[in-house]
Amino acid sequence: MSSRRVVSLDRQAARMGRAEDLQLESLERDIELRTMFGKVLLGIAIVVNLATITLVTLTALSLARLSDKLLIALISSTVAELAGLVLVVAKYLFPTGRPTLPRPGRRPSGPDPPSG
């Protein structure tokens, strides 16, 4: 009976290790995905800002004709876009609740499950 219990505990330990491995893999994929999306969004922001700067410069040099209202809207939307991008990046870098890995042999922190 004792050897059966040891086998059961070994099996549970192996499952726990596998669960931690899967959780680590999931976090690594999440980081890779966020990095990829960050690069794509940064590229889009750069292109939009360069287009805005180009249009404003061409208008200032009288090589293009855009109304004042349109230029104000264009510049305002560019500023709002940058502010939104900074906000999203700041929330990503400084999250309010960061997921943590449970330590072996310790219960995860948080509220106790309801007893039923």
What does this entry look like structurally?
By secondary structure, this protein is mainly alpha-helical. It has helices spanning 2-60, 68-93. Helix 1 (2-60) runs antiparallel to helix 2 (68-93).
Largest sheet: none
**SSE arrangement, N to C:** HH
First and last CA, distance = 30 Å
- Which residues form runs of ≥5 with pLDDT under 50? none
What is the number of helical segments per DSSP (H or I, 4+ residues)?
A: 2
In short:
The chain is mainly alpha-helical.
Overview features:
116 residues
Helix and strand topology:
Blueprint: H1 2-60, H2 68-93
Helix pairs in contact: 1-2
